[in-house]
Specification:
50% of the residues lie in helices and 14% in strands. By secondary structure, the protein is an alpha/beta fold. The protein folds into 2 domains: 167 residues, Bacterial extracellular solute-binding protein, family 7 (D-Maltodextrin-Binding Protein, domain 2, 3-Layer(aba) Sandwich), CATH 3.40.190.170; 131 residues, D-Maltodextrin-Binding Protein, domain 2 (3-Layer(aba) Sandwich). Strand 1, helix 2 and strand 2 form a beta-alpha-beta unit. Helix 5 crosses helix 13 and helix 12 runs antiparallel to helix 13.
């Protein structure tokens, strides 16, 4: 009888050990990001997600984050996640436009939505549905991964007064915006980030766009180009988390939920962090470089850019039914959302200016 009791106790104890978090097999994933691991706020979401997953899982879900300085393939993230070398990636959806033009809709497009409008489209419109449809063929899931807000239109060595001033201009500007600029005679180039300051300083290029004050100040562009134009081309640039579909589907449901909630929180945190950095950076720029002139492109230039953007959209829509479907849904939602954006934000800011609260 005593031996039987001891045997039952031993079995029960073993079962408890196997069921305990300490004995459970840890999940170890790797995440590759397009940026250097030190380039905040772009590199912030993966680092914070990894820390939160470790804490929420009591150390059972570990994500090792590797920046481009480690894997050496900043624009190979989609392929590496698809192939399973990494279970996750952090990048920008519009980098894959050469693989599928429809990926651009999940970052931002010229004359598109603001961040608030775009997040509403993602989560309460058809954005996430379309994102899943586009990325299904790659064997990955894509989730919003952090927003830069409305990006500035770029640093220019000379003032842009007319459309003719754009002709022959050498400018670094990627994505659909580059195609739009090219229609107006701009010589578009895509120089690696580490060479941009030197290219602008030496006159190899006449202009470039990066992000906004918070990230631009780290690059030093304000030291060599005094015309700083407001944006039109990337009004809500959303980064992305990529997740290998097979790896995700194998996870216990609780870890899937943790991961999805963690990615959503990290994305919103980056938006806030980037805004805060730009607040401080712009004050520093103004104080140390009072010769910077903030400009908005003249209305005739903006109209020409809008016309060129519509032509680009029409050209892609004519040969790609999915592009047309997403475009129509995207701009339909934007039109609906813009009414509320104007009432809730634009008119309040106008009122603040008229009351002298802001300049």
């Amino acid at each position: 009888m005593k031996k039987t009791i001891l045997k039952i106790s031993a079995v029960a104890a073993a079962a408890m050990v196997l069921a305990s978090p300490v004995a459970a097999k840890k999940i170890r994933w790797k995440l590759a990001e397009t940026w250097p691991s030190t380039l905040t706020p772009l590199a912030s979401p993966p680092a914070k997600l990894a820390a939160w997953m470790k804490e929420m899982s009591d150390g059972q879900f570990i994500i090792k984050v590797e920046g481009k300085e480690k894997h050496k393939a900043p624009l190979g993230i989609l392929d590496m996640v698809k192939g399973g070398q990494y279970q996750m990636g952090h990048s920008g959806s519009y980098y894959w436009k050469g693989k599928d033009i429809n990926t651009v809709w999940f970052t931002t497009v010229p004359f598109g939505m603001t961040p608030s409008e775009q997040y509403a489209w993602f989560y309460y419109g058809n954005g996430m549905k379309y994102m899943k449809e586009v990325y299904d063929k790659f064997g990955v899931y894509s989730y919003p991964g952090g927003n830069t807000g409305n990006q500035m239109g770029g640093w220019f060595r000379k003032e842009i007064k007319t459309v003719d001033d754009l002709k022959g201009l050498k400018m670094r500007i990627p994505g659909l915006a580059g195609e739009v600029m090219a229609k107006l005679g701009v010589n578009v180039t895509n120089i690696p980030a580490g060479e941009l300051y030197t290219a602008l300083d030496r006159g190899t290029i006449d202009a470039l766009e990066w992000v906004g004050p918070g990230m631009d100040i780290k690059m030093g562009f304000h030291k060599v180009a005094k015309y700083y134009y407001t944006g039109w081309h990337e009004p809500a640039s959303e980064m992305q988390f990529l997740v290998n579909k097979k790896a995700f589907d194998k996870l216990p449901k609780k870890y899937q939920t943790m991961l999805e909630v963690g990615m959503k929180a990290a994305a919103m945190d980056m938006y806030i962090e980037n805004f805060a950095e730009s607040v401080d950076a712009w004050q520093k720029m103004k104080k140390e470089h009072p010769d910077i002139q903030v400009k908005t492109f003249p209305l005739p230039v903006l109209k020409a850019l809008k016309k060129a953007a519509d032509e680009v959209y029409d050209e892609y829509a004519a040969k790609n039914p999915k592009f047309k479907e997403i475009r129509d849904d995207y701009f339909s939602y934007m039109k609906k959302a813009r009414d509320w954006s104007m009432m809730s934000q634009y008119y309040y800011l106008q009122m603040s200016k008229e009351l002298g609260i802001t300049k």
